[in-house]
Design a protein that fits this description.
Elements (H helix, E strand, L loop, with lengths): L10 H17 L2 H8 L15 H9 L18 H14 L5 H14 L2 H11 L4 E4 L13 E5 L2 E10 L6 E8 L2 E8 L5 E5 L9 E10 L1 E4 L2 H37 L1 E2 L2 E2 L4 H30 L4 H26 L11 H14 L3 H13 L5
Parallel strand pairs: 1-4
Antiparallel strand pairs: 2-3, 3-7, 4-5, 5-8, 6-7, 9-10
Helix pairs in contact: 1-4, 4-7, 5-6, 5-7, 7-8, 7-9, 7-10, 8-9, 9-10, 9-11
């Protein structure tokens, strides 16, 4: 099926985007966000998750967690284009909540296609937050790689770099089962589960190492490779959307500052050394946004091309995130390097985004392998 006009971005998607933007602006504007997650500059501060569970509950009441849940499981079954529109606004607000992690898990569960996975999605509809526990101690999330094993329905081992681990109630865990790899549903408070928080640069998220010691688990799929091959383009695309949204905030905030800050009796924006790079940031963001919505549309209408387009989107968004971050700090001058300036929240979120599912070089390498084949050793 060919892609629809405007990537399928219609009235429903516009309404979702606009309502999300208003929700984030009203409930947690940037100054409140900084007070919530950035109130303590001490590098040795506690590793507790800083967020507002009451706002998460309001998001659940709006039905955002069920957007990508298929109708067969009682969800809304909206296309990836709508979900991307929401994730772009999450990035623009740098909102501290497990929404992105839960949406990621939803796509994996939908790809499992089992009764157990559908039941897990029903729990998401009921307000359960979920995160994907898949990365091994070497930092690899490639489909066969995992440090978790399963025997007699119980998991043992550890998963690293688990996102929003302190905020969720369940994990989708990748584990070795015999000669293959499966996916399992585990309660975060189950006996034998230990969550060990990491110290990370991103103040708007938490991350942890999750250890499993003979933990009872429900099998979702005995073929993780097949499920993740189908689901991962959506995860990469949603991550890219978050980067695009955050970059848009960085650009807008820096432009507004350049209009009011004066040097040599002129606004900063008067100088070509400032305004020309900001135009370049805008162009980079627009390019990335087009690739992100192209990838999302492919997930909905051309799944055979989804992985290729998702690699393109993530590579471009990663570069745009780095460019927008550097220009936003530099053009705020001396204040841009201070803790009191809100710029650092987005700079750090973008750094985390770039590393989470692979940086631009990684995605370009994967894209090259798909287009021209892997380079011989």
């Amino acid at each position: 099926m060919a892609q629809p006009t405007n990537f399928g971005f219609g009235e429903e998607e516009v309404m979702l985007r606009d309502s999300a933007r208003k929700f984030f602006a009203d409930k947690l504007p940037t100054e409140r966000l900084h007070a919530l997650v950035g109130d303590d500059p001490d590098p040795h501060r506690s590793l507790e998750a800083r967020w507002d569970p009451a706002l998460w509950q309001q998001m659940m009441e709006l039905g955002w967690a069920m957007l990508a849940v298929p109708e067969r499981a009682g969800g809304m079954g909206l296309g990836a284009v709508a979900v991307v529109a929401l994730c772009e606004e999450v990035g623009r607000a740098a909102f501290p909540a497990p929404l992105l992690a839960t949406l990621n898990a939803t796509y994996i569960l939908a790809a499992c296609g089992s009764a157990a996975a559908d039941q897990a999605m029903a729990e998401i509809i009921g307000g359960t937050a979920v995160s994907f526990a898949a990365i091994n101690r070497q930092g690899s999330w490639e489909y066969p790689d995992t440090d978790v094993t399963v025997a007699d329905g119980s998991l043992s081992g550890q998963a690293c770099y688990v996102q929003d681990a302190q905020k969720v109630q369940h994990f989708v865990v990748k584990a070795r089962c015999g000669s293959g790899t499966g996916l399992y549903w585990v309660a975060a408070d189950a006996v034998g589960v230990t969550i060990i928080p990491d110290a990370i640069v991103d103040l708007t998220r938490d991350q942890a190492r999750v250890e499993f010691s003979d933990v009872a688990a429900i099998e979702l799929s005995d073929d993780a490779v097949a499920a993740l091959n189908q689901a991962m383009p959506a995860l990469w695309t949603l991550q890219a959307a978050d980067m695009v949204g955050a970059a848009e905030w960085q650009l807008q905030t820096t432009v507004e500052y350049a209009k009011v800050r004066k040097q040599f009796d002129r606004e900063l924006g008067f100088f070509q050394a400032v305004k020309h790079p900001l135009v370049n940031v805008m162009v980079a963001i627009d390019q990335s946004k087009s690739l992100v919505y192209n990838a999302a549309c492919a997930i909905d209408s051309e799944p055979g091309k989804a992985a290729r387009f998702a690699h393109m989107a993530n590579a471009s968004a990663s570069d745009a995130a780095a460019f927008a971050s550097s220009r936003s700090v530099q053009f705020h001058g001396g204040i841009g390097f201070t803790w009191e300036c809100y710029i650092h929240l987005y700079f750090k979120r973008q750094l985390h985004n770039q590393a989470l599912w692979g940086d631009a070089a990684y995605h370009r390498t994967k894209l090259a392998d798909m287009v021209i084949g892997p380079v011989a050793a």
